[in-house]
Amino acid sequence: MAYDRLQPSQPGGSTQQQNHEEHKARSNKRKIVILSVIAVTMIIVSAVCAGLVIGLRDGGADSIGTQVRRKPTQAISKTCSKTRFPTLCVNSLLEFPGSLTANEQDLVHISFNMTLQHFSKALYTTTSISNVQMDPRVRSAYDDCLELLEDSVDSLSRSLSSVIPSQEGGSTQDVMTWLSAALTYHDTCTEGFEGVSGTVRDQVTDKLKDLSELVSNCLSIFAASGGDDFAGVPIQNRRLLSSDDDLSGESIDEENFPKWLGRKERELLSTPASAIQADVIVSKDGKGTVKTISEAIKKAPEHSNRRFIIYVMAGR
Ligand SMILES: *[C@@H]1O[C@H](CO)[C@@H](O)[C@H](O)[C@H]1NC(C)=O
């Protein structure tokens, strides 16, 4: 039958050849196994070496948020536990001079200073790519970003000088306003690059990495350090858009806005009401979302990082 020939155990010379081939295959297999073992060993050895190099490099430390290298002090742990990004908080504080001997009170201004240094560095490195060729849209987004970073550095410096214990600075409310401004500047910058792609955008957004998280942490640390003063809406030191002393003093700028008012708020206040997308509309006759202002305030989220807009419709 035809399939007899397919039987492998045909007597004769072919068996010997088969044995030989089997032997060859086995020794090949063994070679492959040995080679694989060597390869794996080398991979492990080089991984360990790379680990050592990275470990050594990290001794010099300039990146944040990677890993905890030193043990945080009790004050640092306690301070950072109040933040939304505790790991970033611990890591960034640990590598900042003076943090290991600081008490909780000192950590407030140390956090501000550390955040300011990160912003300054981002501003510096962002400025360094200004000679790169950019098309007009990217250039405009880039220029905006640079300007906003400068404003943030300014806001943070003011906040820092207000929280240094020995100095008489602005009010608590000022610090919150400045910090919030730094947070919105950052958002505005990232938004400017929306819809554009390319290396400039990637480079800029990379430099902005962690910045808004650091500001958010400052806000939490500062709020926690103020204790009960922060429960509820702050009333003292509240600034009105056009109180008498503002009008007489220098605090009004060319655009007739108080100087402390941020860029986004200026844009918002210059926009006609019909063009504003409000979060809540107050209208006594029930045409809005709610009927009273206090209901609207209750609807505003507690720790929002964007402006919550309440539109109060005209009425009696
Ligand atoms: C902020 O940190 C820098 C660098 O560590 C230090 O030289 C400077 O004195 C600090 N400034 C304040 C106000 O603490």
From TrEMBL:
Protein name: pectinesterase
Coiled-coil residues: none
E.C. designation(s): 3.1.1.11
Limits of the Pectinesterase inhibitor domain: 71-221
Lineage, highest ranks first: Eukaryota, Viridiplantae, Streptophyta, Embryophyta, Tracheophyta
Organism: Hibiscus syriacus (Rose of Sharon)
Transmembrane segments: 32-56
Annotated spans, Disordered: 1-25
Enzyme kind, highest EC tier: hydrolase
Domain of life the protein comes from: Eukaryota
GO biological process: one example: cell wall modification
Pathway: Glycan metabolism; pectin degradation; 2-dehydro-3-deoxy-D-gluconate from pectin: step 1/5
Role noted for this protein: Acts in the modification of cell walls via demethylesterification of cell wall pectin.
Reactions catalysed according to its record: [(1->4)-alpha-D-galacturonosyl methyl ester](n) + n H2O = [(1->4)-alpha-D-galacturonosyl](n) + n methanol + n H(+)
Biased composition (Low complexity): 7-18
SUPFAM superfamilies recorded: Pectin lyase-like (SSF51126), Plant invertase/pectin methylesterase inhibitor (SSF101148)
CDD domains for the chain: PMEI-like_3
Family named by the database record: In the C-terminal section; belongs to the pectinesterase family. In the N-terminal section; belongs to the PMEI family.
Pfam annotation, one family: Pectinesterase
Keywords: Aspartyl esterase, Cell wall biogenesis/degradation, Disulfide bond, Hydrolase, Membrane, Transmembrane, Transmembrane helix
GO molecular function: enzyme inhibitor activity; pectinesterase activity
PANTHER family assigned to the protein according to its UniProt record, in alphabetical order: PECTINESTERASE (PTHR31707)
InterPro entries per the UniProt record, alphabetical: Invertase/methylesterase_inhib, Pectin_lyas_fold, Pectin_lyase_fold/virulence, Pectinesterase_cat, Pectinesterase_inhib_dom
